[in-house]
Amino acid sequence: MNARTEPQLLQQLSNQHLNALEEEAIFILREVAGSFEKPTLLFSGGKDSAVLLKCAEKAFGIGKIPYPLLMIDTGHNYQEVCDFRDARATELGAKLIVRSVEDSMKRGTVRLARPDESRNVHQSVTLLEAIEEFQFDALIGGARRDEEKARAKERIFSHRDSFGQWQPKAQRPELWSLFNTKIHPGEHFRVFPISNWTELDVWQYIARENITLPSIYYTHKRPVVERRGLLVPITPLTPAKDGEVIEERDVRFRTVGDITCTAPVASLAANAEDIVLETLTAEISERGATRMDDKTSEASMEKRKKEGYF
């Protein structure tokens, strides 16, 4: 038997690690299908939800995912991401439900303090309205514990009361992967199958599985300005301020959300393998480096989650 080289051993260990994470995610996705009457999978078109959808494809097969996909649209999303979302849903033969913050604004359930305010936080209202409309009892999301401290406190099966609120001090234990999925009428669960993944795990999995993503996740040229340590993209929604110098830079997005709160980072990474190498040396978390609305405290994010945020 030939001795294995160090790169081969490292690749085997990496695959074992990714296999374990994938198996856990698939187990949870199937557990949701067997435990709830009206679940849905939150699919934004971002990298984490793309990984989650790939696991769902492996769990059930193309055209056989037993729950619809749900996207809450702020109306300020990058077009590349929306196009990818629609194409992926069609490819998998999955039902896609889109509900818009703009419709909530028309109903008067969302009111902006000013016209240019970020709509990101207001997604909670539209999400809760969609839950009531379709009577969803479980919502599967791609949040990970390594993203942010308040997320790290949350269980994989995270109980929500009849108001859609999260109670951090009343979480159910999850010993030995045994999940208490009992709910009363009007309550629901948020379920996070990739809670235990890291950003590096996600990109290694994307590379291994050759998962297609929106093009803005990879290097491209974009006009930006430097503002409070971030590269702010110049768009009609995020124009330059007086005195700011617009530069065209090579950038990519580490995380994607509402245009008004998502910033790219300087990068020449053209594929998933390049991004794996970049992630290995990154000193700032993906949200810390890219989110214009996350310059807030852990307590602030926890408050938003208690109010129904993703």
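Next protein, fold it too.
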Amino acid sequence: MGENTNSSHPRPALATGFDFTDSKIMVVGGTSGVGLATAVGFARAGARKLVLVGRNEQRGKQAVETVVEASPSSEPEFLSADVNDPGRAGEVVADAARRMGGLDVLVNSTVAVYQPTLLHDTDIDAIPGMLMQQALGPMLTSRAAVPIMREQRRGAIINIASDAAKVPTPGECIIGAAMAAIVTFSRTLAVEAKRYGVRVNTITPSLIANTGSYDRAMNLEFSRKIFEKITSQAHLGLTEPEDLANTIMFLASSLAANITGQVVSVNGGISVA
């Protein structure tokens, strides 16, 4: 896994003080990186009902073990699904809500497997898949979750995009377009859903240490040069999964009861866009 290259900053800790004891929480992409750190954070904050969604059964099993190790009183479950498939996305959200007896929080932490590539070097046949693999999942799971939350008259959806949605970066033409789609989708859904007590917010990190995305960005000379320069601007420390998890827990909590439709950058000072 990648490592935080800014060693002057201590590794972040998961926040304490939140109480999610009675919350039913679903984390899509919850088997690694930000999603897994978020699931651990919710469990440590009292959440017993947790459903983690991913495509890999083995990683799912390991993620459940990690959450239980962090909080033995939690009762996490893993459901295998490709949420880019409309039918499966609807099924897995309904299944999770049925297992937990409701759905209070939906976190979408899915990431398409890609490496930054200039547009003229990008296979034209790959572009539709790149867009769909990044942007479609959060839209489909949100669509499936909103009717459940609407009936409950409460709920919080937190979608993770990236600063590529707001800051043009060479090599990220397509992924930036996909991230911008998530941002606009989430803001518009926030306007639609607020009357039912459902809040929708987006988090946009830049490079996240200790993740597969970090490793892929640093494996190619082209992207490594770009992101080494970008990383040098993270004077507050390069973002780690726990930084994102803390922000997600805040936005899911009652402390953020009046916050919806917002796009929050968590990037250590790389940009202020």
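About the second fold: Residues 92 and 202 are 22 Å apart (CA to CA).
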